Amino acid sequence: MSKNQILEEILNEVDKHPEIMSRRDALKFMSVSPVAASVMAGTTVGAASAVAADVKGKIVIVGGGLAGMSTAARLNNSISNADITVIEPDPTSVSYQPGQTLVGAGIWDKEDIIYNRDDFLPSGVKLIKGSVTAFDPDNNSVTVDGSKEVKYDQMIIATGVMLNYAQIKGLEGEITSSGTDNSAVKNSGIGKDGLHSIYFRDGAEATYKGIEELIAKAKAHKGPEKLQAVFTHPNTPIKCGGAPKKIMYLTNSRLEEAGVRDKVELTFYPNGGGMFGIKDYHTAIVEQFKTRGFKWHYKHNLIEVDTATKTAVFDKHWKEKGAYDEDLEEYTMVTKHERVEVKYDFMHITPPMKAPDVVGNSAVGSAKGWVPVNKETLQHVKYPNVWSLGDVAAVPMGKTGGSARKQYKVVVDNMIAAMQGKSLTAKYDGYTVCPLITSIGTVMLAEFNWASKPAGSGKNAASFPLDPTQERWIWWLLKVYALKPMTIHGMLSGRA
Q1: Residues 218 and 323 in one domain
Q2: C-beta of residue 419 within 8 angstroms of C-beta of residue 55
């Protein structure tokens, strides 16, 4: 896709929201902004390589979401006469999941983020519309829907994660973000009576209705006690680690817009001991929370929800000194627990997440469920013809679409090198990007890698030459207008 085509896709997004910006103003912004120029440079995609690799072998990709389908497209562009099969049951697997936050805040409609899998299947790539039900890496095969055996020479695992709402007592369901069967989750109460979650599409749509209900309740509220809006972050790795805070910021914006912010208390309950794993971003977020009057309580993990009484139960945990070890000359640290009950009028749940059981319980999985790979080459630690990327890969950080954009190029380059009998030279450096929405109109663009520092100068330079810890309107435009076209029309073509 050409630069002009990408620009037109961005302008099409602008046309959907004239209340925010006109096409004319957007063109002006794109022409004068160095940030926009950088976006366009990053989105411009050229023609396929004139000299495609001449390698032979059957490649099977398990998972046809953003990571899997982008990898299929790039392999198809890079190998002459490629033999590629994608196995994916969900007809809307390539839908734009980062947009669910904006759906939850009423910025986008649900239909704005739904894309059909079959429209993005690369020409010549085969598609099996089913689910892998067993892995047999010792015999280079997988089983589809319990009966069909599919052989491979190289396999890529990009299944994504499962949203494990059932891990919370009182709730049910284990679903994917884009899957259509979420009845168990909704039947257990999520999506109504103040209990919400943006992590699946229907849930995101219901979240905005929940925010509107909270606003209406606040307008009618006369008592001295404030209404309680609660936001959680679980004790497992999650996709898009900033989303639990994004929806909190956006709820705050809607309450301010309606003139009822003073009637609602917003409180964040993360399982961890900080706002962000990178110190500079943690410090910036704490200051943002203070400015907005948010409350927070670290080391609280949601373990139970009573929907009838609208009560959330948290496991508050901390460490204390235990017995003294004379040999080591140190105290044993003992984890303590306290059950904490919190009433809510509105609560957003970020569910615990896990690898699909068919992955985690198989030979390609690990004790923690994720696919164990070399964190730089993304090659399986045990099976050299198995690779993994995206949310299911066991790498530090990296569960974002921005990470997948870096990872799929590494997988393609290294797989082709392996098929040619060459050394694996492509390296993933842990790059992760989180456009942390801080209000309707501002974003803090958090970019970092395994150095655990904001992207800086030289090799680790940020995409944009601005302080990444500051909230900026210009990054809101990037988030709302540019990133979806970059993803859908850039990554899924295998060229961005």
Answers
A1: yes
A2: yes
> Which among 207, 305, 317, 314 is positioned nearest to 269, based on CA atoms?
314
Query: CA 449, CA 281: separation in Å to the nearest integer?
Result: 13
In this structure, the answer to whether residues 133 and 199 fall within a common structural domain is no
Asked if residue 149 and residue 281 are part of one domain, the reply reads no
**Residue 414 is inside which H or E element, if any?**
helix 401-419
Domain count, the chain: 2
Same domain, 136 and 16: yes
Is the domain of 13 the same as that of 79? yes
pLDDT at 220 over 50: yes
Angle 315-318-319 (CA atoms, 0-180°, nearest 5)?
145
Please state, as a whole number, how many other Cβ atoms lie within 10 Å of the Cβ of residue 153.
Answer: 14
E strands within 213-287? 227-233, 264-270
The sign of the torsion formed by the CA atoms of 89, 491, 108, 237 equals: positive
- Rg over CA atoms, the chain: 23
Cite the active site residues: 240, 434
Gap between the Cα atoms of 200 and 97, Å rounded:
8
Amino acid identity for residue 87 in this structure: I
| Domain boundary residue, one of 307, 331, 353 | 353
- Residue after which a domain boundary falls, among 353, 374, 405: 353
SS3 349: coil
How many angstroms separate the CA atoms of 404 and 392, rounded? 11
CATH code of 361's domain: 3.50.50.60
Does 425 share its domain with 486? Answer: yes
pTM (two decimals): 0.91
CB atoms inside a 10 Å sphere around CB 376 = 16
For residue 483, give the nearest of 104, 39, 178 by alpha carbon.
Answer: 39
CATH code where residue 256 lies: 3.50.50.100
- Structure-derived torsion over alpha carbons of residues 16, 21, 27, 30, reported in degrees to the nearest 10: -100
Show the domain range for 189: 163-353
Residue 413 has pLDDT above 90, yes or no: yes
Structure tokens at 347: 């609560």
Rounded (10°) CA dihedral 313, 307, 241, 280? -50
**Which pLDDT belongs to residue 110?**
95
- Gap between the Cα atoms of 127 and 157, Å rounded: 15
pLDDT tens digits, 460-470: 445 555 677 88
